[in-house]
Amino acid sequence: MAMQSGFIKRIRDIMRMDAGINGDAQRIEQMVWMLFLKVYDAKEDDWELNEDDYVSIIPEECRWRNWAPKDEDGKALTGDPLLNFVNNTLFPTLKELKVTPETPVKKAIVKSTFEDANNYMKDGVHLRQVINIIDEIEFDDVKESHAFGFVYEEILKDLQSARSSGEFYTPRAVTDFMALMIQPKLGEQMADFACGTGGFITSWLSQLAKQVKDTEDQKKYDDSIYGIEKKPFPYLLCVTNMLLHDIEVPKIYHENSLNHNLLDYTDDDKFDVILMNPPYGGHEDKSILGFFPEDLSSSETADLFMSVIMYRLKKNGRAAVIVPDGFLFGTDKKVNIKRKLLTEFNLHTIIRLPNSVFAPYTAITTNLLFFDNTKPTEETWYYRVDMPSDRKHFSKTKPMELKHFDECIEWWNNRKEIILEDGPKAQKYTVDYLLEERGCDLDLCKYPHEEEEVLDPLDTIRNYQEKRAALNTEIDHILEKLEALLPGGVKE
Fold first, then answer.
1. 7-143: which CATH topology?
2. Which residues pair with 273 in a beta bridge?
3. Helices 172-182 and 199-208: angle between axes, nearest 10 degrees
4. Would you say residue 143 has pLDDT above 80?
5. Cα pseudo-dihedral 420, 381, 338, 469, rounded to 10
């Protein structure tokens, strides 16, 4: 059955009438445990078909198939009996499942999913209506089922509107473009150290899937991903997402990537490819900064992730990373990080993105850095992706699409400088120019006469602070030069 449009809206409208649901974050959390059980039930159908002795970790009465769907007569558990079952049987049972180190990941996941989950709904009739909508989703063939992917995307975007997670949902067009340009190969391992709900991993897998021809290839595909997510909720969504992609033992870990001494990483901790959108705007406490060499210990989260990426990229490995504008023009510890990137890695391409790509979640402008661990940078190409002529800006209802990268992809494979009346749109710069003349200010190929954008107050403050720091450094630089020119001028 095709996915009905407005699926999320129908559920939201019912939940709004329920006294137990307080705000968007609870509504989404409520939806997720139900979706998880529905997905898990479909996966169990597969496992029962393919494994002779498959036994569910979930007791029979608690399996979705045995309490959620309507029977042949259209009847189902509802009202207080349903509420009583969910609160007093389903949740206690799933939270207390027996799990040992020998329990396969695909079974243990049920307990970890329910450890932090809650049923907030207070009205059994409303609960029944929501379950009916979720149970309408059918998987004719799990591999061919794009319906669920669609539902997932909607939930993730919804999560962002609720602003309950701090990270930003990376638009599918951007993760797909980055995965396309990185050119995945079977046998490689990719990592995302702040994987959220798994957007980059999904884009990587869909590129890699085209190369799978036999069971040996399939094993390489299954083993090709590695993710870390510190927040329980996105972590849960990510693991469910991996099950949907037929990865039954997903290497997704619930921890904080920054909570590890950089100098302790060995070759075993490194990856062929790193694709990620590091959380930015956050500030880490002093104990985390102790894990970083003094010259790289910035208090800004995105900067720390850049260092982790550099320390965990294999020799000859490739990376594509999203950074905010502040990283390009930023000073202080950011300069040390950029200097390391330019002198130890090959930063070959910077793609500048229009400022509304992440709308409505943030108006901070972002950039894509493409680099590899083959040699020091010799030259860096910039390319500015301009807003399509039929749009003033992107929005939640009209997001950026992969087709908006078409000109960029064409340019990527046949690079040349593009100088417009209002300045360069694509240009190549030598590493000496970036390091010495620019002092690691990488804010080049800018957008012309940008319109004043009304930012979230915190974004506004952060933007001004970063710009002020950059200007101060520039002024100091000029003053030093002037002082050196003064007759007998001695620097203090």
1. Ferritin (1.20.1260)
2. 190, 318
3. 50
4. no
5. 0
